[in-house]
Write a structure and sequence with these properties.
Shape: elongated
Number of helices: 11
Number of strands: 0
Strand content: under 5%
Order of helices and strands: HHHHHHHHHHH
Number of domains: 2
Distance between the termini: 70 Å
Length: 189
């Protein structure tokens, strides 16, 4: 019985690994059950036996990939009471995560419409949470302009534009966005 359970677990993990590899290389929109089955060296029926639907497979894939990453740590950011120091710490942490996970994150965000709604909602809520933790330290965190600037700063696409497309180092991008937020908040001129 234990050997059978191990085989089931091994097969399930091969399927998840195949989904992670395909999401990272061709993106979720172009990942098919047939492609996952081929990469995992199982049948399509075996994939469906392990995962009732594509959302369940996507969840397993996301959980597995995230478990292998050093995730951003908003609690560490909140140790900084100064708003610009907190923003600097938070963006440094986020931009490190974005750089480390860039191939997968580019495909995930690039295939936004192909993601299960639950995952799109989760990503939006995560970005809102990050924005709000960074805004808490500002004297007027409810300012629409400041909220927009900080939301823009935490966006994966902002990081990608600054660093990947325009060649800035993470630290330079952090300084640019911190300076912009400081000017917007009236803390810098």
């Amino acid at each position: 019985m234990n050997k059978r359970a191990e085989q089931v677990d091994t097969t399930r993990q091969r399927i998840v690994d195949a989904a992670v590899a395909l999401h990272g290389s061709v993106g979720p929109a172009r990942t098919t059950i047939a492609g996952i089955a081929e990469q995992a060296q199982v049948t399509r029926l075996t994939v469906y036996r392990h995962f009732a639907d594509e959302e369940a497979l996507f969840s397993a894939c996301s959980s597995h990939w995230l478990s292998q990453q050093q995730l951003p740590d908003p609690s560490a950011w909140c140790e900084h009471p100064d708003p610009l120091q907190r923003l600097h710490a938070g963006l440094t942490d986020l931009y490190r995560f974005y750089r480390d996970g860039e191939p997968m994150l580019r495909n995930i965000y690039g295939d936004w419409a192909a993601l299960p709604e639950k995952h799109r909602t989760g990503l939006r809520e995560r970005d809102t949470f990050f924005r709000d933790r960074l805004l808490e330290a500002f004297p007027e965190p409810g300012s629409a302009r400041l909220r927009a600037v900080v939301a823009h700063a935490v966006s994966f696409w902002t990081w990608r534009s600054l660093c990947h497309e325009n060649g800035l180092a993470n630290e330079d991008a952090v300084h640019a966005m911190t300076d912009l937020a400081g000017v917007t908040a009236g803390l810098r001129r």
